[in-house]
Amino acid sequence: MADLLILPVLVPLLGGLLATALPVRSALVGTLAALATSLSGLGITLLVWLHGDLGTVLGGWGVPLGIGLSADGLSAALLAMASLVALAISIYAGSYFAGSAQARHFWPLWLLLWSALNGVFLAADLFNLYVMLELLGLSAAALGALTGKREAIAANLRYLLVGLLGSLTYLLGVALLYTAYGTLDIGLLGERLGPTPIAATALALMVSGLALKTALFPLHFWLPPAHANAPAPVSAALSALVVKASFYLILRLWTELFAPIADIGAATLLGLLGAGAVLWGSWRALRAQRLKLLAAYSTVAQIGYLFLFFPLLASLPPGTARDDLFAACVLMALTHGFAKAGFFLAAGLVQRKAGHDRISELGGVAQRMPATTFSIALAGSALVGLPPSGSFIGKWVLMRGAFETGQWWWLPVTVLGTLLAAAYVFRVLSRAFGLEPTPLQFVTNARSEIPALLLAFASVALLGLAAGPVWAILGFGAAPA
Amino acid sequence: MSQMLSWTALLPGAIVLSSMLPGAFIFLVKEESHLLRGVLNMFGAIIKLVLVGTLIWGVFLGGVFESRLTIAPGLDLVLHADALSVLFVTLSSVLWLVTTVYAIGYLEHSPNRSRFFGFFSLCVSATVGIALAGNLLTFVIFYEILTLATYPLVAHRGTPEATRGAKIYLAYTMGGGVALLVGAVWLRALTGPVDFVEGGVLSDMASTLHPQLIAIFLLLLLGLGVKAALVPLHGWLPQSMVAPAPVSSLLHAVAVVKAGAFGIVRVVYDVYGVDFAAELGLLIILGVWASLTIVYGSVKALTQDGLKARLAYSTVSQVSYIALGASILGPVATIGGMVHLVHQGIMKITLFFCAGNYAETLGVHKVSQMDGVGRRMPWTTLAFTVGALGMIGIPPIAGFVSKWYLGLGAVEAGQHWVLLVLAASTLLNAGYFLPILYKAWFRPPPDAWPNEHRFESRFETLGALLWPPVITAAFCLIAGLLAAAPFSPLEWATLIARREYGL
């Protein structure tokens, strides 16, 4: 049964190959492959839900030689989010790229990216993780440059180089660990690792490499232009999914592998960088003139929130309070995945209709597309962290943790970030109430508007009102709080 | 038995959903489908009223109605009906029905109706959610949803002033919302989940925690005070007068302002407990703040020429009666504050309906243009007169009952200065309402109205616009005349006070 773990990696890879081989039918092949990939990802999540952690070694070599795959609650949660979000992006892309020459390049690259993404979530050893990360970075940069416009190419070339630098830094850390401990399997390493200078250096190298890839302030400089200039479905994938892959790794390495050396001081440093990201990202989003740039800076800020959890996690002993914080952190990452993808997809529709995405001139178009504007509003309220979104629950637990651990200084950051986010989201929404003629119906183009609407809706209602499954799949029971 | 159990566990949730689901469908309704939209609107409003009727009876008999949804371990969304929630739920459901009729008439031929009625329904759902919230988390959630659902209504007209008003509204309420959130989380971190319990839950806390509890109370009060329009947090209220008249009515009588006042009542009685709040010295702060707001609002109202602006400042003043009632220790004052929650609602909604009618029918927006409107629109003006006299506190209209109990409660608690506040406010109320009445009834009408609009109607204006204020004016009279009848607002407020003080 655990051999099924290969499917979420293999299916999109094969689909991508097939889409390359049949360029004329790439959209059809791509959509079918996307459906199959999504189902395989959800299937794995279901297996983890029912049977607990899964692990397998391919090729019959056994750890530490073979290629290991494993899935626990954390991977399953992100896998499920990625499966749903990527499926919605695929359906949207089918309509977005219809009749365009970009389609035949999009589908193979997109499926390759998806394969690498699932690979990151499922890989069980540090070297495979490196391979998957590298693949993810390459396909992401290629997708980002799909429009062929000058600024897109410049931004994505930088993205590519930054990504390479990040992966190599990470690889350096991996090499250090391998020389010192003779294995790359995360489970085995976790048992052997002690508080040595080598481990500390490896931690610093790996986390900073990944922080660069996940655009943690002040290493975020490459993200806004790259994400803002990509085609809308690609922007959605980059912001919602790709940065989550490296964040997932940081979270996993920090809390599992490096738990003995990742102390409160180091965690506070991450928290401070996160605080910087929240404030600076939100501020730049508020000042952004273009809708997609706003969304990109908002990603910088949202990544920042995730790092605010680290110092709180570090200062709590294992127990319900720490579990709650961990689950809330994952919940925020998942919510951001849904919300940001929905936001970017909707922004893409507005941009298509208006021919530009200058916020100050978008009012009329926004008003003529009620469903799209509604998606932006829903996704936007999830970005602000307004109830009943998943990020509201996340922030509630975050602030509670700040009070309970006495680290009250994270509160002003959260409060200020929330207010800034409300300001930048409503700067867009306020344009949708003008004296334009009334739109006649809610949905104008079902195939592209519904995926965005569903994603945004999921970020608000699904994750906000039924966050329990996130706790459950992470293995945290319904203990009295 | 299990069937009974599930029935009582579903009712509060069903009351919230009875307007939320039709609201969601209304968004999808095509703009020109008047009939379908109207049916959805009325269907939701009437179903809700039936459900609320059942709830009133059940709570009166002492039944427990609670819907609980676990969001995550330790985070429960709780809808729980106690006597106080029933008071507010009933007020909002009844007035929602009336306002929906009014809004359908008012917005005929105006653009973006599906959007308007969609958010209108969400707004009422959020209000009912606030009323039924059984713990602080649920309260915060619905309080914020209310902020969001009201924004599009204030911005609805799409003019630059509307956009500006909506922006100011949002800036104030978001700021308040964050203060409330921080206070709520802080309290949660100190005590665990904060359920609303009659008589309060905090009185057993260790005395070392008292400074923190005081700070939390002030944060919560700051957050609630924005919506309750306590001076100087009231700045958004006059600005959001740009909204269409049905929205102003809803904002002032039922939804936003009332949600703030209701929240203050909840925090004082069911979180801190009124005795404990008095012990911490918090009631004095609240009382002085409310009194300042009462006098300030009335003074500002005197100077306004815009009819809606005058009514807006009158709201600033009148809503603080509720907070004032909560700030005086003793069951009689409690009754006065609670009953004013309803009385202010029915009186103020009447006044705003009438103001809307003058504007729609005659183009009259200012007090100075109101000479002789009573002859042109006698029924509307009659309703306005009832509302205005009630606000001043003339018996036998509802407002008199509120003021009587507030004054009596103040005397009983030995706080005679409150009488001065009440007297000053009454004089000022008379000062800004009586000139309007004099102009309307006794001055000759002008040769031509600013912008007269003749409806094809047997009445002075469109039927859908005329009946709502006439009906709510009748409520004002009935609530005052039959104050001692069973199930009157006063009787229900007495029931609440008995339960809060454990009498």
Structural overview:
The complex is a heterodimer of chains A (481) and B (503). The mean pLDDT of chain A is 90. Chain A has a domain at 263-481. In chain A, a hairpin with an 8-residue loop joins strand 1 and strand 2. Chain A has a two-stranded antiparallel sheet. Chain A is 75% helix and 2% strand. Chain A has helices spanning 7-21, 26-51, 73-96, 102-122, 126-144, 150-181, 186-192, 197-213, 223-229, 232-257, 264-287, 291-314, 320-354, 363-368, 370-384, 390-404, 410-429, 446-465, 468-473; strands at 54-58, 67-71. By secondary structure, chain A is mostly helical. Chain B has a domain at 281-503. By secondary structure, chain B is mainly α. Chains A and B meet through helix 13, helix 15, helix 16, helix 17 and helix 19 of A and strand 1, helix 4, helix 5 and helix 6 of B.
Question: What can be said about this structure in brief?
Answer:
Chain A: One of its GO terms (biological process) is ATP synthesis coupled electron transport. The complex is a heterodimer of chains A (481) and B (503). Chain A is mainly alpha-helical and 481 residues long.
List keywords for this structure.
heterodimer, A: 481 residues, mainly alpha, two-stranded antiparallel ribbon, 2 strands, 2% strand, globular, B: 503 residues, two-stranded antiparallel sheet, 20 helices, 73% helix, 3% strand
Give the SSE string of chain A. Answer: HHEEHHHHHHHHHHHHHHHHH
First-residue to last-residue Cα separation of chain B = 31 Å
Q: Name the strands of the widest sheet of chain B in spatial order.
A: 1-2
Shape of chain B: globular
**Silhouette of chain A:** globular
> What separation lies between the terminal Cα atoms of chain A?
36 Å
Mean pLDDT of chain B: 91
Question: Main sheet of chain A, how many strands, which sense, barrel?
Answer: 2 strands, antiparallel
Give the helix proportion of chain A (percent range): over 70%
Present the secondary structure layout:
The complex is a heterodimer of chains A (481) and B (503).
Chain A: H1 7-21, H2 26-51, E1 54-58, E2 67-71, H3 73-96, H4 102-122, H5 126-144, H6 150-181, H7 186-192, H8 197-213, H9 223-229, H10 232-257, H11 264-287, H12 291-314, H13 320-354, H14 363-368, H15 370-384, H16 390-404, H17 410-429, H18 446-465, H19 468-473
Antiparallel strand pairs in A: 1-2
Helix pairs in contact in A: 1-2, 1-4, 2-3, 2-4, 3-4, 3-10, 3-13, 3-18, 4-5, 4-10, 5-6, 5-10, 6-8, 6-9, 8-10, 9-10, 9-12, 10-12, 10-13, 11-12, 11-17, 12-13, 12-17, 13-15, 13-16, 13-18, 15-17, 15-18, 16-18
Chain B: H1 2-28, H2 34-60, E1 65-72, E2 75-81, H3 83-106, H4 113-132, H5 136-154, H6 160-191, H7 210-227, H8 236-239, H9 245-253, H10 256-272, H11 274-279, H12 282-302, H13 307-327, H14 331-362, H15 373-376, H16 378-392, H17 398-412, H18 417-442, H19 463-481, H20 489-501
Antiparallel strand pairs in B: 1-2
